[in-house]
Amino acid sequence: MTCSPVSFIKQLLPGGYAGVDVFFVISGYLIIGGIVRDLSSGSFSFASFYYRRAKRIIPAYFIMISATLLVGVLWYSDRPFYDLGSAVLRSFFFAANHYFYKFTSGYFAQSGESHPLLNIWSLSVEEQFYIIISLMIWTVWKLEKKDGLYGACMHGGNGRMLFSRARQARECYIILPCAWMMKCP
């Protein structure tokens, strides 16, 4: 039996996906609602949307990455530090989820428990979603198909939720299985 905080939480709250799921739903509702409000008022711009996202995320992100790398230099040998650097590099491009999908066997697998940046996968999924959804909403809005947008989001999201297969441990590292949770308000 492993005596780590992750193992303890895993035993206390089996499944572990509920918190991320709730976060994705609330975040999706708030961010997409803001995009639609800004489009309605004529004040939406990609520059201001991404600036607000960066202003909120980047300071904490860089502090976390810097502290993790500092501890990694002191704690890890060559190969684990190289793996940490690979995860950091991919996280700069919001692709850490693909790294963890490829190199771990699941969020709660033994191979993932010891990785200090395992939590960064959800930020990558979230940012990939907002890059895609902001472009989709803006495109549909400009084509004046507002009602079609809401219908597509609601039906597509509910269909994914209703017809999804049992969740695999590695499945949530990728955006498509998680995208339905961030559907339109």
Would you write up a description of this structure?
This protein is mostly helical. Helix content is 72%, strand content 0%. It starts with a helix and ends in a 6-residue tail after the last helix. Mean pLDDT is 74; it is low at 155-167.
Give structural attributes.
0% strand; 185 residues; mainly alpha; elongated
> Rg, please?
18 Å
Helix and strand pattern: HHHHHHHHH
How many beta-strand runs? 0
Individual helix count = 9
Described by strand count, sense and barrel closure, the largest sheet is: none
Estimate the helix proportion, in percent. Answer: over 70%
- Please identify the structural class as seen in this structure: mainly alpha
Share of β-strand residues? under 5%
Coarse morphology: elongated
- The unreliable regions are 155-167
Gap between N and C termini, in Å?
A: 43 Å
Mean pLDDT: 74
Provide a short characterization of the protein structure.
By secondary structure, the chain is an all-alpha fold. It contains 9 helices and no strands.
Task: Describe how the helices and strands are arranged.
Blueprint: H1 5-12, H2 18-41, H3 46-75, H4 78-92, H5 96-103, H6 110-113, H7 121-142, H8 146-163, H9 175-179
Helix pairs in contact: 2-7, 3-4, 4-5, 5-7
